[in-house]
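pasting input
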Amino acid sequence: MIGTSLPKIDSYAKVTGAAKYADDLTLPRMAHGRILRSPHPHARILRLDIARARAHPGVLDVITAADLPRRYGIMPTTQDEYPFALDTVRYVGEPVAAVVAVDEETAEEALDLIEVVYAPLPTVSTIEEALAREDIRLHDTTKRGNIMKEVHLDFGDVDEGFAQADLVREDTFFFEGTTHAPMEEHSCVADCRPDGKITLWTSTQTPHYVHREVAKVLEIPRSRLRVIVPPVGGGFGGKCEPFAHDFAAALFALRHGRPVKFTLSREEVFYCHRGRHPVKMILKTGVKRDGAITAVHLQTFLDGGAYASYGLATVYYTGALLTVTYKIPRYKFDGMRLYTNKPACGPKRGHGSTQPRYAFECQLDKIAEQLGLDPAAYRKQLAIEPYSTTVNGLRVTSCGLVECVDKVVEASRWRERRGRMPAGTGLGIAISSYVTGAGKAIYWNDMPHSGVIVTIDRGGGVAVLCGSSDIGQGSDTMLAQIVAHELGIALLDIRVYTGDTDLTPVDLGSYSSRVTFMAGNAARAAATKLRALLFEAAAAHLGVPAERLTAADGRIHLADDPATGLAFAEAAQLAEAAHGTLSAVGSYTPPKLGGEFKGAGVGISPAYSYTACVAQVAVDPDTYDLRVEKLWVAHDCGRALNPTLVEGQIEGSAYMGFGEAVLEEQVFRKGLHKIPSLLEYKLPTIYDTPEIVALTVETHDHEGPYGAKEAGEGPLNPIIPAIANAVYDAIRARVDSTPITPDKIARALKERQRPLPAPARPHGAPTPIEVMPL
Amino acid sequence: MMRLPKFEYRAARTVAEALEWMGEFSSAADKDPQAHAMLMAGGTDVLPNMKHRVFTPQVVVGLRGVAALRGIAYDPEHGLRLGAGVRLSELAASPIIRARYPALARAAEVISTPQLRQMGTLGGNLCLDTRCNYYNQSEFWRKARDYCLKRGSEICRVAPNGTGCYAVSSCDTAPVLIALGATARIASRAGDRILPIADLYHDDGIHPVRLHDGDVLTDLYVPSPPGDWRSTYEKYRVRGAFDFPIASVAAVARFDGAQCADVRLVLQGVATRPLPLPEVEALLRGQPWTPDLLDAAAELGYKAAHPMDNTAGTIALRRRIVRAYIRRALDALIAPSVIH
């Protein structure tokens, strides 16, 4: 069961269309809501008159900030949003009001009847503008200008490290913002029972956090709100917090005792965003002649958009995880997140670690070239030791980094082919690491991060209850597989109920690649407890010692004599007679990890996954079109509980990384998203996607369930720098920003014709860190 | 979800019926622009534009049920007759078109996606509205930007100081049909008329297709190619599916030994209409097909293209593609696979 490639338990429902997503839900008397959004990137609301909209036939309610005046925000210390703009709008697409009507068309019509008088304000739209224009302030809560958060962390004396270096490189990189683009647009349905209890079905990755925030803003006890997650059509980080439609739907249901649905358009999803931060990075690294790193200094500037979202964590993440792949003796990190008049950025697959990983891997490639080292061998040489502690206090356990490099080197025939590729083609390598679950909840507490209840009925059916949210990655299947494995029964005998705050114990949600590790451990704990009760009852019945029993194939029997045993259902009945109603709980709490400094809570994780990627690219000599021909990706997932699902996550991550490296751009003109549609926001199609070779490395992490670590996010991170490094190998010119477009390649080739930059700085004379030009 | 505005749908069974219904509204439209009717074949352009509220017809006259608009017929003497209602997927799969007019099959097969080719028609593709990043947006988006010259404003957002609309002609079949010397039959209440496909288009991004309200494009005629005619269509798009051309080249040529006896080149995706390149044709005609000549031709074509910053792809990229793809098309004309 464990380690077997079984189909997802919801695959038949999904491929036949039987799965009911939030937008498929229809309730009697259900009303429909639409949201009025700001057409201005920055403006004061002088007047908001909803009288005409309210009076419009078919309109049931109009909701504005006057109805929901409570501030919220996903991170407890940076709450800077209202469900609907209170008196100022800060990005195009910001919710201003919601109309609920008998149908969607009527609600849409009534939006036009809401009169809003705006007084436009000057805007800031880039990192540089946000820094330079302290006079244009988005929020009065900042200490200075538009700096939402500033982080300065020192681990060891980097000046000393740079002084000891034989080569010091400083490079500037820019990573463009991208969005998640899940197939399913955000959608929710809310209803309220006569006793005043609200149910909110919503497409979310984090039902527990939505539960907390919606109850808080509505000023109702959490016991009166139930959040249920229907099947979710993808999230990738974009559905990790409550949105205006969640609040509006719950409030409408509460007021009217009548169900309502909100489903966003694709364009609105682009405005909700919470996607990858554009990040400017200044990276300085010192190395000895043999390549050993003496010090690293990273400065990051994050373009956060108009609100905090997860940005507090993001800015820390841009610094925290740079240390978990290589031996870095001294490390300095300065990070800064800025407010700009654009949709808020937040977490996207690889949360905050993707951008600096891209920068670091590209810079290491440059260093390897300057030192005359093979980039693959160099990475192995630098690789961190398993079971070690990083300079910033992160505990590393299992680490298959070297094996991952070996696998992609071998599969791509790197040694034989690199340097011998035809003109215009190239190979590049990069590696990365990612957390297997954040070590802290977003609100700090000592409670478990995941809980699971397993119950057995008298017919031998087993129910698994967990607060997790399956967003397509297969976490429900993972839960079923673990319980089936422990109890020796088939997947079909198990029903999994997840993401229901009334019925399922808290799981923090599908983010930070935490579910398999944390909910998996909780499920295993619960199932093992139940199994002990079954074994005890079966042992008494069979007259054998419980230690000799095993559970397999729907039976409980002697491990060395399968004929002596009884059916699972019979054992369940005996156990229920002996112990009372059968149910067990399991939970998982991460160990106490990390240093004592401020910010030590970000980056800690019970385990880190490792990945290596080799990319093969070809650049068209006439058009400068970049074709990524093949990606070899080896991922240390600890142990593949379901190898097909792990490969699926590797392939999906590689696809997404490829899109970010080559095509995707969340870009704005005068504050307005340039291309908020799936026609013009260029997600790769199957025709564009390179051949992907997904390889797994199993390091059997001693704290992961059966040795498992994450696979959902980590494999994305090395893809982008591997492609960038392959482009360099192909054209001998560097493009130090994403996406790598034909125009940027053309420019890089043009610049290459100029004299090459000065050679490596000599020992003892590091260049002072330059302040970023504004 | 983005919803359609309210409209009345009338399914025509004959061309005459379509003409009659269109006629009812063409006079009313003079008084009230919202009171107009629109023709719809596959709907793959009309319906998204309606969802964006750039088309808001009161009545949509559907042509899907008009049997006379179907059919592909070929004879060596008269050439090819195509019903305007032929689906793009049929066009791409037709053995006779693949054999005799490979550029046309190619153009049809690189349009959008299999699903849209299955719905979209040749006539619909030829009548495709011009496209622009300031125009093909939702009502909300366009309102936030105060609309554009093509719809709702006096100012073009691409070239605020310009005089016209620079929306881009993006239909893939038009440049090929122009290069092949095709003609179109247009039905109207006054009677039918036939005109060269090239004359269907003019330099007006707002009204790119020269049909009167109430005209119905019914048939396309493509002359029978002499035995040694060769044709190709080279399209550059960002992705391998969905996308409109960033720039493309239709090329048709006849060779007399090593010399080019005749050639026609038409660019698409870089102007408000398909852009013939007579200077480039003149340069090539009667000359031996040498690499230097083809380079010079590509350079000349490059100079003729002046795209704006209004579609996917930057101006620099689109111009670079023009040069590279003219060269590529000219090379392809003498490649063995193009010979038929």
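fyi Chain A is about 25% helix and 25% strand.
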